[in-house]
Predict the structure of Inner membrane transport protein, MFS superfamily protein.
Amino acid sequence: MQVPFAHIASIDLIQPDGVAVQTIQTDSIAVQNARDPAPGEEVFVMPLAIFALTIAAYAIGTTEFVIVGLLPTVATDLHITLPLAGLIVSVYALGVTFGAPILTALTGRIERKPLLLGLMALFVIGNSAAALSPSYEMLLVARVIAAFAHGVFFSVGSTIAADLVPENRRASAIAMMFMGLTVAIVTGVPLGTYIGQVFGWRATFWVVAALGVIAFFGIATLLPNTLKKAPPASLFDQVRVLGSGRLLIVFAMTALGYGGTFVAFTFLAPILQDVTGFSEKSVSLILVLYGIAIAAGNIGGGRIANHNPARALIGLFLAQAIVLLVFSFAAFSPVLTLITLAALGFLSFANVPGLQLYVVQLAKEHRPGAVDVASALNIAAFNLGIAIGAWLGGLVVESPMGLAATPWVGAILVAVALLLTLWSSTLDRRAALTLKTA
């Protein structure tokens, strides 16, 4: 999973699918040099190396989610069922979940530019192998290979982006790289879906691999060789964070709240075609609408969660569960489906900034020496949620309930996340009251 840039006040740097290792004080993670310079102020120009990282992020963001629009095509070509095709989403997410923290710790001694080049080479190999896969099993292996590159890239790439610019421009550099993820959701996924529908799903993976090659040479040419290494988080630090009950509650909130949407989203293409009645070519256009809603939700959710993330998450999870439940009935109407999907796209990503900010706040209180590790493990929880949601969605599709039931089953997961959030918020109030009376 990737988390597009979000407006969050004063947070530790949050790397999608990777390890957070630096802290930035900022009003919002957004490109801040868009304003007109003051008289006598030097105009800041973003280094070209940042754009090479942005292209890489775009390619990675596209390859993760584009499979959602191609599931019916892949299932038909490989002669597998839709639930089995849904596992292609799950194994990728699991590869990021477990690969990112472990490989980041194991590769900490490697110089960062060679490591980044190696990761992009691995990404190209994984997507090329996917395009050449003669069987379902080989496609799963290829997706895991690409997922390993995915997680570590964002762990390393975001810290590199921050080091390439002056201290007061680090947030802008991080946002510029993460913009590749946002643009991938809005344009890369629907475009990749269209390419796959017209030229075959293998063509989509070839295009993504080609983007990886462009990013590889961009990084090789533009990235400086003198990059300092940041000390990696050890596996022991990661295990120690898992000993905090408060943080485990938030990790569960993340996995269930985010994963609930993927019970239905994983099978969105067949839902749109087989339940709602849209044509295959319409799916890519609908994914554009969904992507725009996701981008808006990520930005809006950050603003909502700035002051009190727990309170914001209660409202967002409640709305998300309701919209998923409504989608179970709206899916039979094309007009209602479009309206509901726009709301669902907004809400499914609006909770991302709040969840990350909340885990950072609690980590500073309960595990102050491992805040970055807690942030990274919450990213792993996002991907675990994707894996669980896609797997559960496959079970629902295979059952007598069928495709139309996936939204309300997802709503149950989000409802559990809502209950956990209410519990966590109650614990927060009790802790605050204890401090006041102490």
Summary: Residues 11-31+45-437 form a domain with the Growth Hormone; Chain: A; fold (CATH 1.20.1250.20). The chain is about 75% helix and 0% strand. Strands lie at 11-12, 23-24. The longest helix spans residues 334-366.
